[in-house]
Design a protein that fits this description.
The protein is 33% helix and 21% strand. It has 531 residues and is of the alpha+beta class. The strands form four sheets. Strands 13-15-11-14-12-17-20-16-21 form a nine-stranded antiparallel sheet. The structure holds flavin-adenine dinucleotide.
């Protein structure tokens, strides 16, 4: 008995000693990391306290505190820090994540106990607009798209391809793809970049483009931050319109809605922006729209009931300048006459180009005032081949989803090439994983969730819905890919990249062989073999 209890107390004492040693080692490591970072000659600064912001993102579900945050002033600050960590070798376990605005939803811009680089502190660096036949703008990768828009508009120009929300950074969207309702015409944002400046995982500052260091250029675009930190980008511009006609119409039948969308993205003469929404069991939808849109037939529109229905809303814009005011309505009427929507549901408004492009920010301000913007966002974005979209819609919009009251559900097609003009808008040399088919749909479930609610707005309920949707896609073998992908095992990442996995791994070995970069994506783990 006695020897048993002395054994237990020996084990207890040894355990506390080990825990103590680990704590001391950790704090020594941290002290030595802090002092080694403080000794670096950077023009910006490191912060070691008050870094909670870097453990948060828009998803508000994953929170890992870094050991330090670099607020770079110059690109050389990023290179020096990267070289420092590279020289520590694989034994240190230290990782680095670039953080744009932290609008990721699954911790992708976080670096557990590592270093987060606050890219926005670079953003004050000069933006230079170049006019000419092929205009472009040179920007810092920490710059927000909204600031780029305002700067370019001073020259009557604007980027060609957008995201729905503009308070995102250039580096953050180029690391994914940057897809919105203009992608059918111009491709995603990653197809509208001429040149990048990148700091690789070895700390080398490299300029890359189609012509120079092309493999790095293509790898970084859609590369989920795995091959380098983008520090500058050269973005293609076009003349900016002053105004847009913004149109919404409703459908009751998904296949008619999808047919019209597919017709519009392939037509020669068409709208400038084409998206769509699924609206399930929304009370008073038409009344809600009336606050910002005008029904073409007010009497008929007021009789339209949305409650209890599954509706599909086609959202369109047509750009125009003031001297075209007389002809724009005729042009819009002619385009709309080709479509098969419910006639009483035609709503139109006219807004400035900035008002339209920055529309989600207007919604953000409203949601912030209600305390909804900071709630968890269990988002799920899927890319679905055209041949499978009807099967997907029948089950997911018909059975799994019972309402869309917690946030929008977007559905719209994009085409990789236009058979009329033979223009390829998606480049399969980038890291973005493209489906085989020429036309594919982006379906985005964008809810907010109440953490402890046990109702349909609860986090667990919505996570359960997402799982049901993913399980269905897998069981039905629909060939669906996640956009803004999130997986927890390397097997799942391999399946995501499919045949492109080999090249992804080769690029990792070439540009970030120690797997220092973007650990929050959970693709590779530092100090563990990556093959
Ligand atoms: P972060 O979330 O900070 O970073 C994203 C990833 O990129 C991380 O892995 C990070 O380490 C890495 N990264 C960041 N900066 C760099 C850099 N300079 N170099 C290398 N890697 C970097 N996406 C669309 O495509 N279309 C949309 O319409 C769209 N709408 C959105 C609307 C809202 C309200 C929100 C919150 C997001 C939306 N997104 C959309 C998603 C958005 O593109 C991603 O969240 C993206 O991550 C941009 O956010 P960020 O700049 O805050 O980047």
């Amino acid at each position: 008995m006695k020897s048993n209890s002395s054994n237990i107390s020996f084990i207890r004492n040894s355990m506390s000693l080990i825990v103590c040693c680990m704590a001391i080692k950790l704090s020594l490591c941290f002290c030595s990391l802090e002092s080694s970072l403080r000794a670096l000659h950077v023009q910006g600064s490191f912060s070691f306290d008050g870094n909670e912001f870097a453990a948060k993102d828009f998803g508000n579900q994953i929170h890992f505190l870094p050991s330090a945050v670099l607020h770079p002033k110059k690109v050389s600050d990023i290179a020096i820090t990267m070289q420092h960590v590279w020289q520590m070798g694989s034994g240190s376990g230290l990782t680095i994540a670039a953080r744009g605005r932290g609008h990721s939803v699954q911790g992708q811009a976080q670096a557990p106990q590592g270093i987060v680089i606050n890219m926005e502190s670079l953003s004050g660096n000069e933006m230079t607009v170049h006019k000419g036949i092929f205009p472009y703008v040179d920007v810092s990768a920490g710059e927000l798209w909204i600031n780029i828009l305002h700067e370019c508009l001073k020259h009557g120009l604007a980027p060609k391809s957008w995201t729905d929300y503009l308070h995102l950074t250039v580096g953050g969207t180029l690391s994914n793809a940057g897809i919105s309702g203009q992608a059918f015409r111009h491709g995603p944002q990653i197809s509208n970049v001429h040149q990048l400046e990148v700091v690789t995982g070895k700390g080398e500052v490299t300029i890359c483009s189609e012509e120079q260091n092309a493999d790095l250029f293509h790898g970084v675009l859609g590369g989920l931050g795995q091959f380098g930190i983008i520090t500058r980008a050269r973005i293609a511009l076009e003349p900016a319109p002053k105004m847009v006609k913004w149109i919404r119409v409703l459908y009751l039948d998904f296949s008619t809605f999808a047919r019209d969308q597919e017709y519009l993205i392939s037509a020669e003469n068409t709208f400038d922006y084409i998206e769509g929404l699924v609206i399930i069991n929304k009370t008073g939808l038409v009344n809600y729209w009336r606050s910002s849109f005008n029904p073409q037939d007010p009497t008929q529109a007021s009789q339209f009931i949305s409650d209890g229905k599954t509706l599909f809303c086609l959202e369109l814009t047509k750009n125009f300048n003031l001297h075209e005011s007389d002809t724009i309505d005729m042009e819009v009427d002619s385009l709309l006459s080709q479509l098969n929507y419910i006639p009483s549901t035609l709503f139109i408004t006219e807004v400035s180009c900035v008002e339209f492009l920055d529309r989600v920010h207007t919604a953000e301000l409203k949601l912030r005032s209600k305390g909804i913007w900071d709630l968890p966002h269990p988002w799920l974005n899927l890319i679905i081949p055209k041949s499978q979209i009807n099967s997907f819609a029948n089950v997911v919009f018909g059975n799994i989803l019972t309402d869309t009251n917690n946030g929008p559900v977007l559905v719209y097609p994009v085409n990789k090439s236009n058979q009329l003009s033979f223009i390829f808008r998606w480049d399969n040399r980038t890291s973005f994983v493209l489906p085989e088919e020429d036309i594919f749909y982006l379906v985005a479930f964008l809810p907010h969730a109440v953490p402890l609610s046990i109702e349909h707005d609860g986090l667990q309920y919505i996570l359960g819905l997402n799982k049901r949707i993913l399980d269905f896609c897998e069981a039905a073998n629909l060939g669906v890919k996640q956009y803004l992908p999130h997986y927890t095992t390397q097997e799942e990442w391999k399946a995501h990249f499919g045949q492109r996995w080999e090249i992804f791994v080769q690029r990792k070995l070439a540009y970030d062989p120690l797997a220092i970069l973007a650990p929050g994506q959970r693709i590779f783990q530092k100090a563990v073999s990556i093959i």
